[in-house]
Structures are given as structure tokens and as C-alpha cells.
């Protein structure tokens, strides 16, 4: 079975739960006291997708404004970007729109964009209506899903949706190589273990 390496970056405001989503996906773990990411962290996970294996090379970026200028290093060459907002904070949804604009202007042309409304376990204090987020995602042809890293809701589904949006390899590519690299990760990062 062919293994494809797919670079994926997570973008979004600080505190929306990017690291928690990645940590839940890769390690099936949730940490209430997780620290803010410094620079970016890198993790991988391989999942089956039809006749292929998708090895996600996941760059979890830091949401704090002071790290914003590093982001191009992580979305450059990405097959997909997951832009996360916190459903309990409308301002994080506005930040998400800025990320969409930046990706449109400077990101890869064919990048798959997934919008994840995280902290769905806190829907009693929701500020971002599902309808508004869904309609916005549709308007930019992005994947949309609400997740809860805390309760492990829709985390696998988020990455499955991304996998399904990646066009399968041309059969001739299988013959050329066992591992087909879609992207190359950026050279440096400082990492926080989650
Ligand atoms: N209730 C709830 N809390 C969550 C969820 N996901 C993350 N959190 C909490 O939100 C806070 C921030 O989570 P992080 O994963 O560090 O957020 P981040 O987006 O990576 O933040 P930066 O690294 O600063 O960009 C932490 O206290 C988490 O425990 C969730 O699904 N539900």
C-alpha cells in the first residue's frame, strides 16, 4: 500500500485548542493544563484512506500574535490547513477569517481548507452559531466540522474529511515509489510536547 506524506498545518487564535485537537488525534489524550505553543510543534499520524495510507505531517502553530510571522513557513507546501476557532468566542471566528484571507493570498493554490469549531462541549455558552460558521465554510468551499478535543468528538472525522478531499494518486505513481511525498516540512521549529 502506498504511503503518502501530507503536510498539514493548524492555524487559529491562541487558546482555541489547536494543540489539544492534535494531541487528541495523535495520542488520544487531553490535558486541561496544556501550555501555549512556542513557535510550532510537529507530530505525525498515519491513517488508511482507500488504497492509500496517509501519513499526516502535522505542524501545530502558535496562535499568539508574536508568532504570526512564522506561519508562512508552516502553510507553505501544505496539502491542507485546519483553521480552528473556539465556538464560545466570536473574536476567534473573526481571526479565522483573517487566516482564510492570508491563505488565499499567500498559501498554496490547491490547499484543502478545513474549519474546525472547537470546544463543542461548551455549547451552552456558544457565541458562534453553527449556521453562520457552516454558511461561511460553504462560501469558501471549505470543510466544516465542530469538534471537542476534550470529549473526543469529531476529531478523527475532521482528519478523515481532509483525507477524502485529497485526490487519490495516479496509478502510475504507485509503480514509481512506495512513498510519495506531497510536501517537505520546513526546516526548524521549537516544540512543546503535549
Ligand atoms: N472545554 C474545552 N476546552 C478545551 C478544548 N480544547 C482545548 N481546550 C482548552 O483550551 C485551552 C487552550 O488549549 P490549547 O490546545 O493550548 O490551545 P491552542 O490553540 O493550541 O493555543 P496556542 O498554543 O496558544 O496557539 C486549554 O486550557 C485546553 O484545555 C475543548 O474541546 N473543550
Defining traits:
single chain, 194 residues, alpha/beta, 30% helix, binds guanosine-5'-triphosphate, P-loop_NTPase
Describe the structure.
The chain is an alpha/beta fold. It is 30% helix and 26% strand. The protein has helices at 18-27, 71-75, 90-106, 130-139, 155-165, 171-176; strands at 2-11, 40-49, 52-61, 80-86, 112-118, 143-146, 179-181. Strands 1, 2, 3, 4, 5, 6 and 7 form a seven-stranded mixed beta sheet that branches. A hairpin with a 2-residue loop joins strand 2 and strand 3. Belongs to the small GTPase superfamily. Rab family.
Q: What is the structure about, briefly put?
A:
This is RAB31, member RAS onco family. With 194 residues, this protein is an alpha/beta fold.
Q: What is the helix tally?
A: 6
Tell me the radius of gyration: 16 Å
**Percent strand:** 25-35%
Major sheet, described briefly? 7 strands, mixed
**What is the global morphology?**
globular
* Structural class computed from helices and strand pairing: alpha/beta
Protein name: RAB31, member RAS onco family
Subcellular location: Cytoplasmic vesicle, Phagosome membrane; Early endosome
Membrane topology: Lipid-anchor
Main location: membrane
What are the SSEs and their pairings?
Elements: E1 2-11, H1 18-27, E2 40-49, E3 52-61, H2 71-75, E4 80-86, H3 90-106, E5 112-118, H4 130-139, E6 143-146, H5 155-165, H6 171-176, E7 179-181
Parallel strand pairs: 1-3, 1-4, 1-7, 4-5, 5-6
Antiparallel strand pairs: 2-3
Amino acid at each position: 500500500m502506498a504511503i503518502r506524506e501530507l503536510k498539514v498545518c493548524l492555524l487559529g487564535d491562541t487558546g482555541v485548542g489547536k494543540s489539544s485537537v492534535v494531541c487528541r488525534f495523535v495520542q488520544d489524550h487531553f490535558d486541561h493544563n496544556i501550555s501555549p505553543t512556542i513557535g510550532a510543534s510537529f507530530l505525525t499520524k498515519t491513517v488508511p484512506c482507500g488504497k492509500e495510507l496517509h501519513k499526516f505531517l502535522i505542524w501545530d502553530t502558535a496562535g499568539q500574535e508574536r508568532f504570526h510571522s512564522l506561519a508562512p513557513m508552516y502553510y507553505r507546501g501544505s496539502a491542507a490547513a485546519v483553521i480552528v476557532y473556539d465556538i464560545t468566542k466570536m473574536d476567534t471566528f473573526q481571526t479565522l477569517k483573517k487566516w482564510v484571507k492570508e491563505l488565499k493570498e499567500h498559501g498554496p493554490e490547491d490547499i484543502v481548507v478545513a474549519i474546525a469549531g472547537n470546544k463543542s462541549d461548551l455549547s451552552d455558552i456558544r457565541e458562534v452559531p453553527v449556521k453562520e460558521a457552516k454558511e461561511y465554510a460553504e462560501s469558501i468551499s471549505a470543510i466544516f466540522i465542530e469538534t471537542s478535543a476534550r470529549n473526543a468528538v469529531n476529531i478523527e472525522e475532521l482528519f478523515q474529511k481532509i483525507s477524502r478531499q485529497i485526490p487519490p494518486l495516479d496509478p502510475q505513481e504507485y509503480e514509481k515509489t512506495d512513498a510519495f511525498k506531497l510536501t517537505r516540512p520546513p526546516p526548524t521549529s521549537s516544540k512543546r510536547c503535549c
